[in-house]
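Prompt: I keep going back and forth on a fold encoding question. Comparing notes only helps if you start from a blank page. Show me how you would write down a chain together with its backbone fold. Please set it down just below, with no commentary around it:
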Amino acid sequence: MSVADTAVLLVCAGNATRMGGIHKILHPLGDTTVLEHSLRTFCQCESVSELIVICREQDTDAFQTILDAAALSLPVTITHGGSTRQQSVKNGFACLSAKAEYLAVHDGARPLVTAAEVQQVIHDAHVFGAATLGVPVKDTIKLVEDGLITDTPPRANLYLTQTPQVFRRSLYEQAMAFADAHKLDMTDDCQLLEAINLKVAMTIGSYTNIKLTTPEDFAIAEALLAERSANKEATNHG
């Protein structure tokens, strides 16, 4: 049985500039909202001990309303984001309880991650100290400078990095201190550990763990949810 020693930092403080004015985290999805989909999933994970939701200050009341109605089985703390993603995660880190030995940083815009995927990446982080979900790239990737292709990296070595990204608390704190001292600003939490030469394990996830970035992504997410529901119903009646 897993020990509940991992705090989830759900990052929801972006401006969603590519969503045409839609607040994607509070937007309806399936039978609830994007926010509640993620929270429900993490509440199913026996390794998760607490939830920290990081949002913009002006969205606090809207988030609190959803959290109150959700009546979740795990304690939830709301804190505010910073001027960058790294600062937002740092604000969330400051809210960790003393018992949280690991933290899982998750994009609020990835509501389709499954409990099984969360459990696996947390397990791998316990083994290696740090781990992230990801999937092999499907397409050939080109490096381009001034409109001209300069290189084609071997596809076998390339992965699309997803979240959650899970870290031993002491390692992440060390990486944050280094970033602060050297004025580094990262858009990906694994980069913090890479900057101090620490290795991060790649846990193979699923291509369905999509990030809601544009309005079209909601149609894809709804279709994936419908497929999951149909598969579950077929299994229950099988």
The longest strand covers residues 159-168. The two ends are 29 Å apart (CA to CA).
